What we know:
Blueprint: H1 23-29, E1 35-38, H2 46-52, E2 58-61, H3 71-76, E3 80-82, H4 89-104, H5 107-115, E4 144-148, H6 152-161, E5 168-171, H7 178-185, E6 189-192, H8 195-201, E7 204-207, H9 221-225, E8 232-235, H10 244-252, E9 258-261, H11 275-278
Parallel strand pairs: 1-2, 2-3, 4-5, 4-7, 5-6, 7-8, 8-9
Amino acid sequence: MPILEGRTEIDLVVWPEDRACDREWLLRNATGAAALVIMVSDKIDAEVLDAAGPGLRAVSTMSVGYEHVDVQELAKRSIALGYTPDVLTEAVADVCIMLALMAGRNAKQTSALVNEGNWPQFSWAPFLFCGPQLSAPSPSRQRTAGFIGFGRIAKATLARLVPFGFTRCVYGSNDDSDKELADRLGLTSVRRVDLDTVASESDVVFVLAPGGPSTYHVVNEEFLRKMKKMGVLVNASRGTLVDSDALAKVLKEGGIWAAGLDVVEGEPNIPADHPLVREPR
């Protein structure tokens, strides 16, 4: 942490390895700390806070989400919480567009075909691996983006979709000034709707809500069954928001076209035989 190095008034203790911090190391070294700077992989609960002791004044996580921190325990002990809500907005919005493009254009299947050396033997066809294009096809010129969670990242993603010809937006949370946003981006409409409408009207659904009990498996089999057959699901928030088993089932049955996943429930412990790893789309 270069910004703190050389500060003689600070006794700095840093996890020395380029991997997730070992919990036993954290428990040992938290003792007497005035502040903890953590990652999303570090679970901060009563055990860690007890180990740190009464001198702990702040916990700061290098992440947008903070569901790995027991905020109620922090509040009981008058410990401040810091997080980084803006730092990755543009980067995650870029990833959302990338995943939507890759999912719609069968990037996983086609990359595997080339990387495994099977392209020379593969039978060519005029519409081989064609999928739904992200941009609005002429002459319809109409695309609808759906969002579960409509904060900074969602709005940055929506702005990136405008040049692709998206004309409408529906979202399932976060009441906002719809008319002002629609005018600023040149969209026909931006509407707050229920989740069923997000599923049924969207060409691409972007999952960008916080994690936690209230959003657990918000994208379940019922939601997926209401999506368009050529619809694409993108999750760049938390894996717990999407029921992995339901998604694998619906993909296998052709209920939706594809999914672009930056996160999966249970990560990083995702085995090679995980149904979503095996699923070509």
